[in-house]
Amino acid sequence: MSLVRPLRCTVPAGVVVLAIFAAAAAGCGNFQDVSSVVDLRVLAISADPPEILVDPAMLGAAPFQTKLTALIADPAGGDRAINVDALACPRQIDAVTAATGKNGVVCKPFDPQSADPDASVAVTPLPPDSPAASRTSFGDAELDIPYTFPSDLLVRGYKLDPFAQLGFQMPITFQLTVSAGAEREIAIKRVIFTVPPPDHADQPANANPRITALSGYFTRDGQANAVDPLPFDLGNPAPLPVGSSLWLEPQGADTEAETYFTRVLTRDANPQVVVSEVKETLRYSFFATAGIFSPPSTNNVPPVLRSQPERIHLESNYRTPAVMPPDPQVTFWIVVRDERGGSSWIKGRFLLVPPRP
Fold this sequence. Notes:
The chain is mainly beta.
């Protein structure tokens, strides 16, 4: 999943901060920790399915469908409506030109009269009172957006992407504009279209990785392994004293990480396309409405300094606020993503209590 998260600081309304230097020039101080969610925020977008296998000759013949689910945190929103507008386009994400503001990562505004091959397609937005937009008991909203890909969008994407014409993955980009009250967020999600590699036509499409369990523990030993880990009950708030910390370790997704065949370019002077077998990389992101996670993200890539590590550390340490916040109930989310457009999440709660005497 690819997500655009703008830098935030105290600047006049309507000013967009494009780089750290621009933020410094505007007089901004310390930034909010990336794992701490204090305002409207799109934490993740999941597609089901995340990858669609295609035959290039059939792109213009049959429609393809997917369902997007956006995880939107709005900890201070109460019962206010969350509005979503969505566009889909075949553009490639380019972080360098996005930072300069010359050719951003987002889809161009929809223009039915435009012949521009990069032009976007409007996605039917959800009405504010849609049942799918109802809030959960965790202070967030999960919005479902079913979508059928127009044939012309896929054909345009294929023509625009020279690597897709070589058989590599072709992304269709979704831009979601989410607003609630005066707050506004823009998030990007790519749905992957893939031509199966030669001799692997029966390879299944990517599935969303899923965290199936969560363990917690207060201490680690000298080798950074858990001491007395316990299953974490996501259904009930876990009491946690203010000023303390707790390790949380997501489980299940890594043991089920998929091995698949994909096209890669060789490092030759004249690169060649070859088929290689790889195991997918999983990345975990940690968020909470109060306190911070450290590190804010982990992954299942073996450490460079160890050829055969005893264990790859996926856990992150949650540290409560130093003082009791106005709301002692803290919501946290753990998002897992792979490199083929797959993602999912779990969520739970802490109940902050006075520190131990």
